[in-house]
Amino acid sequence: MDGLPETPFARRYDAVLLDIDGTLVDSNAAHAAAWSDAFAAHGRHHSPQQIRPLIGKGGDKVLQELASLDSESGEGKAISEARARIFQERYLPTITPTPGARQFVEWLIDSRLTVVVATSAKADEVKGLLAVCGGQALAGNATTSDDAERSKPDPDIVVAALKKSGAPAGRAIMIGDTPYDIEAATRAGVATIALRCGGWDDARLQGAVAIYDDPRELLERIRTPRLYSDSL
Prior knowledge:
Number of domains: 2
Shape: globular
Number of strands: 6
CATH topology of the largest domain: Rossmann fold
Order of helices and strands: HEHHHHHEHEHEHEEHH
Number of helices: 11
Strand content: 5-15%
Distance between the termini: 22 Å
Largest sheet: 6 strands, parallel
CATH class of the largest domain: Alpha Beta
Low-confidence stretches: none
Radius of gyration: 17 Å
Protein backbone atom coordinates (compact mmCIF):
# COMPACT_ATOMS: atom_id res chain seq x y z
CA MET A 1 0.00 0.00 0.00
CA ASP A 2 2.76 2.43 -0.86
CA GLY A 3 4.13 2.45 2.68
CA LEU A 4 0.79 2.51 4.50
CA PRO A 5 0.03 -0.41 6.80
CA GLU A 6 -2.47 -2.96 5.53
CA THR A 7 -5.92 -2.62 7.09
CA PRO A 8 -9.14 -4.67 6.98
CA PHE A 9 -10.65 -1.88 4.88
CA ALA A 10 -7.91 -2.14 2.25
CA ARG A 11 -8.07 -5.94 2.23
CA ARG A 12 -11.83 -5.93 1.77
CA TYR A 13 -12.03 -3.38 -1.05
CA ASP A 14 -10.17 -2.63 -4.26
CA ALA A 15 -12.00 0.60 -5.11
CA VAL A 16 -13.62 3.54 -3.35
CA LEU A 17 -16.42 5.37 -5.15
CA LEU A 18 -16.42 8.77 -3.51
CA ASP A 19 -19.06 11.45 -3.25
CA ILE A 20 -17.93 15.06 -2.70
CA ASP A 21 -20.76 17.38 -1.60
CA GLY A 22 -21.63 16.85 2.05
CA THR A 23 -19.06 14.06 2.23
CA LEU A 24 -15.74 15.83 1.73
CA VAL A 25 -16.94 19.44 1.68
CA ASP A 26 -19.64 21.15 3.74
CA SER A 27 -21.58 22.37 0.74
CA ASN A 28 -25.13 21.04 0.96
CA ALA A 29 -26.60 24.20 2.48
CA ALA A 30 -24.70 26.31 -0.06
CA HIS A 31 -26.18 24.30 -2.93
CA ALA A 32 -29.68 24.80 -1.53
CA ALA A 33 -29.06 28.55 -1.24
CA ALA A 34 -27.71 28.75 -4.79
CA TRP A 35 -30.77 26.98 -6.15
CA SER A 36 -33.03 29.31 -4.17
CA ASP A 37 -31.23 32.36 -5.53
CA ALA A 38 -31.42 31.02 -9.10
CA PHE A 39 -35.13 30.33 -8.85
CA ALA A 40 -35.71 33.82 -7.42
CA ALA A 41 -33.80 35.38 -10.31
CA HIS A 42 -36.37 33.80 -12.63
CA GLY A 43 -39.43 34.81 -10.64
CA ARG A 44 -39.86 31.56 -8.75
CA HIS A 45 -39.65 31.40 -5.00
CA HIS A 46 -38.42 28.30 -3.20
CA SER A 47 -36.65 28.71 0.11
CA PRO A 48 -33.34 26.99 0.87
CA GLN A 49 -35.17 25.03 3.58
CA GLN A 50 -37.60 23.71 0.97
CA ILE A 51 -34.78 22.75 -1.37
CA ARG A 52 -32.39 21.29 1.19
CA PRO A 53 -33.97 17.78 1.36
CA LEU A 54 -33.43 17.39 -2.40
CA ILE A 55 -29.70 18.18 -2.34
CA GLY A 56 -27.82 15.07 -3.36
CA LYS A 57 -30.13 14.40 -6.26
CA GLY A 58 -29.18 15.61 -9.71
CA GLY A 59 -30.21 19.09 -10.77
CA ASP A 60 -32.61 17.65 -13.34
CA LYS A 61 -34.55 15.99 -10.54
CA VAL A 62 -34.49 19.12 -8.37
CA LEU A 63 -36.07 21.10 -11.20
CA GLN A 64 -38.70 18.45 -11.87
CA GLU A 65 -39.66 17.68 -8.29
CA LEU A 66 -39.61 21.24 -7.02
CA ALA A 67 -40.94 23.21 -9.97
CA SER A 68 -42.18 20.64 -12.53
CA LEU A 69 -39.58 21.93 -14.97
CA ASP A 70 -37.80 19.87 -17.60
CA SER A 71 -34.06 20.46 -17.34
CA GLU A 72 -33.91 20.64 -21.15
CA SER A 73 -36.56 23.35 -21.40
CA GLY A 74 -35.56 26.96 -21.91
CA GLU A 75 -36.46 27.97 -18.37
CA GLY A 76 -34.95 24.82 -16.88
CA LYS A 77 -31.64 25.44 -18.64
CA ALA A 78 -31.63 29.11 -17.65
CA ILE A 79 -32.19 28.31 -13.97
CA SER A 80 -29.55 25.58 -14.03
CA GLU A 81 -27.01 27.90 -15.60
CA ALA A 82 -27.84 30.64 -13.09
CA ARG A 83 -27.44 28.19 -10.21
CA ALA A 84 -24.02 27.10 -11.45
CA ARG A 85 -22.85 30.68 -11.83
CA ILE A 86 -24.23 31.78 -8.45
CA PHE A 87 -22.70 28.78 -6.71
CA GLN A 88 -19.26 29.35 -8.23
CA GLU A 89 -19.19 33.09 -7.58
CA ARG A 90 -21.15 33.49 -4.36
CA TYR A 91 -20.88 30.28 -2.37
CA LEU A 92 -17.88 28.18 -3.41
CA PRO A 93 -15.38 30.64 -1.84
CA THR A 94 -17.13 30.18 1.54
CA ILE A 95 -17.14 26.38 1.63
CA THR A 96 -14.92 24.44 4.04
CA PRO A 97 -13.93 20.76 4.22
CA THR A 98 -15.90 18.40 6.41
CA PRO A 99 -14.02 17.32 9.57
CA GLY A 100 -11.06 15.14 8.65
CA ALA A 101 -11.67 15.36 4.90
CA ARG A 102 -8.17 16.56 4.01
CA GLN A 103 -6.53 13.78 6.00
CA PHE A 104 -8.90 11.17 4.57
CA VAL A 105 -8.18 12.32 1.02
CA GLU A 106 -4.45 12.15 1.72
CA TRP A 107 -4.87 8.61 3.02
CA LEU A 108 -6.83 7.58 -0.05
CA ILE A 109 -4.28 9.08 -2.44
CA ASP A 110 -1.43 7.28 -0.65
CA SER A 111 -3.27 3.95 -0.47
CA ARG A 112 -3.30 1.20 -3.09
CA LEU A 113 -7.05 1.68 -3.54
CA THR A 114 -8.49 2.90 -6.82
CA VAL A 115 -10.49 6.04 -6.06
CA VAL A 116 -13.18 7.23 -8.46
CA VAL A 117 -15.27 10.30 -7.69
CA ALA A 118 -18.98 9.58 -8.16
CA THR A 119 -20.92 12.82 -7.87
CA SER A 120 -24.09 14.45 -9.12
CA ALA A 121 -22.12 17.69 -9.51
CA LYS A 122 -21.32 18.99 -12.97
CA ALA A 123 -17.83 18.30 -14.31
CA ASP A 124 -16.91 22.00 -14.30
CA GLU A 125 -17.65 22.21 -10.54
CA VAL A 126 -15.69 19.14 -9.50
CA LYS A 127 -12.21 20.70 -9.55
CA GLY A 128 -13.28 23.64 -7.41
CA LEU A 129 -15.00 21.40 -4.89
CA LEU A 130 -12.05 19.01 -4.65
CA ALA A 131 -9.66 21.93 -4.17
CA VAL A 132 -11.50 22.77 -0.95
CA CYS A 133 -10.41 19.47 0.62
CA GLY A 134 -7.04 19.04 -1.09
CA GLY A 135 -8.39 16.45 -3.50
CA GLN A 136 -7.29 17.98 -6.81
CA ALA A 137 -5.41 14.78 -7.65
CA LEU A 138 -8.74 12.95 -7.78
CA ALA A 139 -10.28 15.24 -10.38
CA GLY A 140 -8.86 13.28 -13.30
CA ASN A 141 -10.68 10.13 -12.23
CA ALA A 142 -14.22 11.37 -11.74
CA THR A 143 -17.67 10.46 -12.96
CA THR A 144 -20.20 13.26 -12.84
CA SER A 145 -23.73 14.00 -13.99
CA ASP A 146 -22.19 14.68 -17.40
CA ASP A 147 -21.22 10.98 -17.65
CA ALA A 148 -24.66 9.55 -16.93
CA GLU A 149 -28.03 9.68 -18.61
CA ARG A 150 -29.80 9.70 -15.26
CA SER A 151 -28.60 11.36 -12.04
CA LYS A 152 -28.77 10.10 -8.44
CA PRO A 153 -30.67 8.34 -7.01
CA ASP A 154 -30.71 6.45 -10.30
CA PRO A 155 -27.63 4.20 -10.37
CA ASP A 156 -26.05 5.47 -13.61
CA ILE A 157 -23.28 7.56 -12.01
CA VAL A 158 -22.29 4.77 -9.64
CA VAL A 159 -22.37 2.23 -12.47
CA ALA A 160 -20.10 4.49 -14.55
CA ALA A 161 -17.72 4.98 -11.60
CA LEU A 162 -17.61 1.25 -10.94
CA LYS A 163 -16.81 0.56 -14.58
CA LYS A 164 -14.05 3.18 -14.51
CA SER A 165 -12.58 1.62 -11.37
CA GLY A 166 -12.28 -1.81 -12.98
CA ALA A 167 -13.38 -3.46 -9.73
CA PRO A 168 -16.28 -5.89 -9.34
CA ALA A 169 -19.22 -4.53 -7.35
CA GLY A 170 -18.41 -6.73 -4.37
CA ARG A 171 -14.89 -5.26 -4.11
CA ALA A 172 -16.01 -1.61 -4.24
CA ILE A 173 -17.46 0.65 -1.55
CA MET A 174 -19.42 3.87 -2.00
CA ILE A 175 -18.78 6.63 0.54
CA GLY A 176 -21.51 9.26 0.63
CA ASP A 177 -23.76 11.33 2.85
CA THR A 178 -27.31 11.14 1.48
CA PRO A 179 -30.05 8.54 1.07
CA TYR A 180 -29.62 9.11 -2.66
CA ASP A 181 -26.02 7.89 -2.54
CA ILE A 182 -27.19 4.75 -0.75
CA GLU A 183 -30.05 4.13 -3.17
CA ALA A 184 -27.90 4.68 -6.25
CA ALA A 185 -25.12 2.42 -4.96
CA THR A 186 -27.53 -0.29 -3.83
CA ARG A 187 -29.14 -0.36 -7.26
CA ALA A 188 -25.64 -0.73 -8.74
CA GLY A 189 -24.87 -3.63 -6.40
CA VAL A 190 -22.37 -1.63 -4.33
CA ALA A 191 -22.39 -1.26 -0.54
CA THR A 192 -22.25 2.20 1.06
CA ILE A 193 -20.55 3.73 4.07
CA ALA A 194 -22.60 6.80 5.02
CA LEU A 195 -21.47 9.95 6.82
CA ARG A 196 -23.73 12.13 8.96
CA CYS A 197 -21.85 15.35 8.14
CA GLY A 198 -24.12 15.99 5.16
CA GLY A 199 -27.03 16.61 7.52
CA TRP A 200 -29.00 13.36 7.29
CA ASP A 201 -29.87 11.34 10.38
CA ASP A 202 -29.37 7.61 10.83
CA ALA A 203 -32.99 6.81 10.05
CA ARG A 204 -32.61 8.31 6.57
CA LEU A 205 -29.24 6.62 6.07
CA GLN A 206 -30.58 3.12 6.59
CA GLY A 207 -29.21 0.67 4.08
CA ALA A 208 -25.60 1.72 4.61
CA VAL A 209 -23.28 -0.99 5.94
CA ALA A 210 -21.89 1.52 8.45
CA ILE A 211 -22.58 5.13 9.47
CA TYR A 212 -19.94 7.52 10.86
CA ASP A 213 -20.01 11.18 11.79
CA ASP A 214 -17.52 12.40 9.21
CA PRO A 215 -14.31 11.49 7.33
CA ARG A 216 -12.31 11.97 10.54
CA GLU A 217 -14.19 9.24 12.36
CA LEU A 218 -14.10 6.95 9.32
CA LEU A 219 -10.33 7.36 9.02
CA GLU A 220 -9.88 6.71 12.73
CA ARG A 221 -11.86 3.49 12.38
CA ILE A 222 -9.90 2.42 9.30
CA ARG A 223 -6.63 3.01 11.14
CA THR A 224 -7.84 1.01 14.15
CA PRO A 225 -8.49 -2.45 12.69
CA ARG A 226 -10.46 -3.79 15.65
CA LEU A 227 -12.84 -0.81 15.70
CA TYR A 228 -13.36 -0.93 11.96
CA SER A 229 -13.95 -4.68 11.91
CA ASP A 230 -16.38 -4.45 14.83
CA SER A 231 -18.42 -1.72 13.14
CA LEU A 232 -19.34 -3.76 10.07
